[in-house]
């Protein structure tokens, strides 16, 4: 049974990492081999895309705006499976809607949507960017009730938690002040998940095979994937202090200050992604992220998700405070 996968948003961290796992079967023997990987990308010259090309991915330029063209593009890839990773783009919602409709018309059988944990708790007025994921999930899952669409046979949704890698945006404060400035309040908690853990689950789902497309263990599943530990800001700082062997403090900053910090330090991050981050922080402050969801990760991979201390160890070079050098005035 062949498996030809098209991954959208391949220039982004998520799409890039999922494709990376699928393209290196010798490196990740617990992930089943696939026949081909197509990287659908808004930015074909991006360094992530060039790396995927060097690993054997076929690169296809994604030009949104015309559904008919998108249908033909997907047909030409020859893919039977689509991994829908919403791109970092101001028109993310419209682009994803077009992709779902095109995948339906192109006769693609298997669809995996990378959604967002917490989207179901988001208020359409206060967290509109987060809430958009619920609309996309509904669109993907509604194909199940359409007997004329092959796309309904084998859907799966992964609701990914807050990526721990977002904390790296505050590396300047971590290095210069020994602090993590986050606008999450002091009482409530969240469970940051390592991006690599989400990519692992996705790679297992995309490569798994059953009589209807995806493995029956994964087909039709709504998988919520968060980190394994609930952390308030202080607990996150404690995990960082332990991992980095250097004192790290949590600083509860206002949403306004958070916006300024992101503007100053995340120039490469798309504006829509900054809005998404700020909305997720507001969800934490409202007490709507006080849960962990690790069952899907255990069931799909057979492993344990990354603990916060291990995450901070992985990125110790980026976050460890720089010791102040004494000036020699002689």
What's the CATH C level of the domain at 4-164 and 193-225? Alpha Beta
The percentage of residues in β strands lies in 5-15%
- Uncertain stretches of 5 or more adjacent residues: 324-330
Write down how many β-strands occur, each being a DSSP E stretch of 2 or more residues: 9
Protein name: NmrA-like domain-containing protein
Domain NmrA-like: 2-284
InterPro entries: Ergot_Alk_Oxidoreductase, NAD(P)-bd_dom_sf, NmrA-like
Pfam family, one: NmrA
How would you characterize this protein structure?
By secondary structure, the protein is an alpha/beta fold. It has a domain at 4-164 and 193-225: Rossmann fold. The chain has 13 helices and 9 strands. It has helices at 13-22, 47-54, 67-77, 92-105, 128-142, 171-177, 195-207, 233-244, 255-265, 271-285, 295-301, 308-314, 316-319, and strands at residues 4-7, 36-41, 58-61, 81-84, 110-116, 154-160, 179-182, 222-225, 249-252. The strands form 2 sheets. The chain has a 7-stranded parallel sheet with strand order 3-2-1-4-5-6-8, sandwiched between helices. A two-stranded parallel ribbon has the order 7-9. Helix 5 links the parallel strand 5 (110-116) and strand 6. Helix 1 crosses helix 7 and helix 7 crosses helix 11. The longest helix has 15 residues, at 128-142. The radius of gyration is 20 Å and the shape is globular. The N and C termini lie far apart (74 Å). InterPro entries: Ergot_Alk_Oxidoreductase, NAD(P)-bd_dom_sf, NmrA-like. It comes from Daldinia eschscholtzii. This is NmrA-like domain-containing protein. Residues 2-284 form the NmrA-like domain.
